[in-house]
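To start, one record:
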Amino acid sequence: MESPEDTGDNPCKTPAMFGPDRFAPRLYDVPHEELEAAGIRGLIVDLDNTLLGFRETELGHEHVSWVARAHDRGFRIVMLSNNFSERVTGLAARLQVECIPNALKPLPFGFLRAKRRLQMSRHEIAVVGDQLFTDVLGGKLCGLYTILTEPIELKDFAVTRVFRYFERIMLRGRR
């Protein structure tokens, strides 16, 4: 799997802890074959603005289909969210994936719980999310491969808007 540094896609020099291993417009733009070729068999996936737009309640067909095909290919998936239990649990059930709500990302506790549920080693797991300071930083703190997606919507929670400002500085030219 090529990293942004290999392809020249990442012209700004982001410190390694804040730089994702790969960029993708959306989760469904990441080919399953590419993950398999890199030895990745487990995914820790964010919910808000990665699988679902801000305050939306219905998952997009493309994401549902991508997750179903991932299951068919033998991938194991855990949804990791800072959002509340009831909402996350219901959406995870629709995707037939395990979930960890109230994860307090980027703290490593939720990521390590997800890793234990996947029962895989670090090099077999990728974290996919839309936020640099929660999804990517948390994944990096745990030594996991990270994929940063574009947010589905520009609307965010107030705290997230502050982080987005700093993301634009860190990812100059990407966002």
Observations:
- Residues 2-12 have pLDDT under 50 and may be disordered.
- The helical segments are 4-7, 32-37, 61-72, 85-95, 108-118, 132-141, 158-170.
- The first helix runs from residue 4 to 7.
